């Protein structure tokens, strides 16, 4: 499964990863809807009900993509659950779920058309998310009411002690998508993350490229023109390039 899309705009929201698909598409330059639909179609063809998304390093936009996927699945008429395993240890208050029969009691409804199950692990419960068999049974036997399950996972190379290790949940999923940032995620990070996953028996089903750091063509032209110096009309031309809707498509 391969979905490659590029974004040209690096705007961020005040709450990254939250909002409607239109807001998230704007944050990720709109063209992401095409990537989401392509992922859904290929997942459907491969009979992948549980779809996990991760990245080599954090900050790639995985949570935003997962929420867009969940909402788009929901809009297509499929009962959809978003499982968020990215929260740090101790981020919750009171009792919380662990993989098993009790998980459905912690599901909440999102107004965007899908349900959510967010883990707030403690140091005592975090290890239970390393149990591949329990996670797999939860997805296949306990959460049977859902046609599609999107799993938002922490970064593969994040070695922080306060986050869930993504390997077990990735192994328990039907398909795994890796998200990378053009110009930010290095080839070394990609190779290391891929090797880490494959060593644990996880095969990457596809890659999504977030091109948020790539400058717009008009902005690049304007930058070059402004470096020319004191040439009559150059500032006007630079401003024209920078504000051109043709050179700076949104």
Structure overview:
The chain is of the alpha/beta class and 250 residues long. It folds into two domains: 21-214, Rossmann fold (3-Layer(aba) Sandwich), CATH 3.40.50.300; 215-250, no CATH class. The protein has eight helices and seven strands; from the N terminus they run ααβαβββαβαβαβαα. The chain has a seven-stranded mixed β-sheet. Helix 2 crosses helix 3 (62-75). The longest helix is centred in the first third of the chain and has 14 residues, at 32-45. The two termini are 27 Å apart.
Q: Would you identify the regions where 5 or more consecutive residues have pLDDT less than 50?
A: 1-19, 21-30
Considering DSSP H and I runs of 4 or more, what fraction of the residues is helical? 25-40%
Shape call: elongated
Q: Which fold does the CATH topology of the largest domain refer to?
A: Rossmann fold
Count of separate DSSP helical elements: 8
Query: What is the overall pLDDT average?
Result: 80
């Amino acid at each position: 499964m391969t979905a490659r899309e590029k974004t040209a705009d690096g705007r961020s929201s005040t709450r990254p990863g939250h909002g409607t698909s239109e807001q998230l598409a704007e944050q990720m330059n709109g063209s992401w809807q095409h990537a989401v639909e392509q992922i859904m179609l290929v997942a459907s063809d491969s009979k992948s009900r549980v779809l996990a998304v991760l990245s080599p390093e954090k900050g790639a936009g995985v949570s935003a993509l997962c929420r867009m996927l969940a909402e788009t699945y929901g809009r297509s008429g499929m009962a959809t659950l978003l499982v968020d395993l990215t929260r740090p240890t101790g981020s919750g208050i009171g009792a919380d779920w662990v993989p098993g029969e009790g998980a459905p009691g912690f599901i909440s409804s999102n107004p965007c058309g899908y349900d959510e199950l967010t883990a707030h692990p403690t140091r005592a419960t975090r290890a239970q998310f390393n149990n591949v068999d329990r996670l797999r049974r939860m997805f296949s036997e306990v959460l049977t009411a859902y046609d599609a399950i999107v799993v938002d996972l922490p970064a593969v190379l994040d070695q922080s002690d306060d986050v869930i290790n993504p390997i077990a949940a990735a192994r328990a999923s039907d398909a795994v998508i890796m998200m990378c940032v053009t110009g930010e995620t290095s080839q070394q990070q990609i190779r290391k993350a891929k090797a880490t996953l494959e060593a644990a028996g996880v095969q990457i089903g596809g890659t999504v490229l977030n091109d948020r750091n790539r400058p717009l063509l008009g902005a690049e032209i304007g930058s070059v023109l402004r470096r020319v110096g004191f040439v009559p009309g150059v500032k006007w031309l630079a401003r024209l390039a920078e504000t051109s809707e043709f050179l700076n498509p949104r």
